[in-house]
Q: What sequence folds into this?
């Protein structure tokens, strides 16, 4: 002759009896221990058949770097959150676990320029793919030294 705990009457839970009531739900155990506020605040817990899993949607931004160089390019994410990734041999990258919001992805590698120089992205309902960049060797790849110096002898001849 047992008693049943009801969500509407949480204080009428019988105390647990060692060896007999080991099958009571976690809610009944909490109530028996005097933790009624937790069970009430959680909407009755698992024993009432209710389940609550609050999860925020997360998204991803992905793309590819191609052209003069694909591997070793650093991509910097800024905006709603920030992160960096480095491309592997295939030139691909993915920023995952992002919340909805506005972002900017910027590629960089010394000695190279990229087109576009950055990409603005808004995540709201789905992942964004195709954030692609094309790299080309920069004219400053020689460390910014682009002048040609010739040594001239005393007679002015090279």
A:
């Amino acid at each position: 002759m047992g008693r049943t705990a009801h969500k509407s009457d949480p204080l009428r839970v019988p105390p647990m009896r060692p060896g007999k009531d080991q099958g009571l739900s976690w809610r009944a155990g909490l109530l028996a221990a005097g933790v009624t506020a937790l069970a009430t605040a959680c909407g009755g817990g698992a024993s009432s058949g209710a389940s609550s899993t609050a999860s925020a949607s997360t998204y991803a931004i992905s793309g590819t770097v191609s052209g003069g160089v694909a591997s070793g390019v650093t991509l910097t994410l800024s905006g709603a959150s920030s992160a960096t990734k480095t491309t592997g041999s295939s030139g691909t990258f993915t920023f995952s676990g992002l919340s909805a919001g506005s972002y900017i992805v910027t590629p960089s590698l010394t000695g190279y320029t990229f087109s576009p120089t950055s990409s603005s992205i808004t995540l709201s309902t789905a992942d964004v793919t195709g954030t692609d960049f094309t790299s080309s060797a920069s004219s400053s790849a020689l460390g910014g030294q682009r002048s040609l110096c010739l040594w001239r002898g005393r007679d002015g001849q090279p």
Observations:
- The helical segments are 26-32, 36-41.
